[in-house]
Amino acid sequence: MSPQSRPRAYLIFTGTGPILILSTYPKLTDSRLVDKLRYKGIAKFIAYQVDLDAVEACYPHSHDAIRRDLAGSEDIRVLDFNGHQIMANFSLDSLGDPIKYG
After folding, report:
1. What is the dihedral of CA 36, 41, 44, 50, to 10 degrees?
2. Taking the alpha carbons of 61, 76, 1, 89 in that order, is the dihedral positive or negative?
3. Are 18 and 11 in contact (CB under 8 A)?
């Protein structure tokens, strides 16, 4: 997989709780990605990019399957929508600056 198509992982805090996604769009605020989130009822969010190696360590099987599914396309996939599990897997101290939208 080329570095350009390497997915990025984001922890997105939405009105209904956190979700963890993989995306091959160039940035989280890409209008196509935002349109997909809006279609799913997510018009506003606060997000953080998450280290892809940490995501792979926490979700080895589903990460690999989703990464293969995303290969060669620009799209997003939800890796986890269980807020308790997401929060147990990632330290808030390890997250960088927030990305705010809406």
Report:
1. -60
2. negative
3. yes
Question: Which of 87, 91, 73 lies closest to 36, judged by CA?
Answer: 73
Total number of domains constituting the chain? 1
Question: Could you list the residue range(s) of the whole structural domain that residue 40 is in?
Answer: 3-101
Q: Please give the model's pTM, rounded to 2 decimal places.
A: 0.89
Nearest to 90 by CA among 49, 61, 60, 62: 49
Residues in the chain: 102
Checking if the pLDDT of 11 tops 80, the result is yes
Model confidence pLDDT, tens digit, residues 22-39: 999 999 999 999 999 999
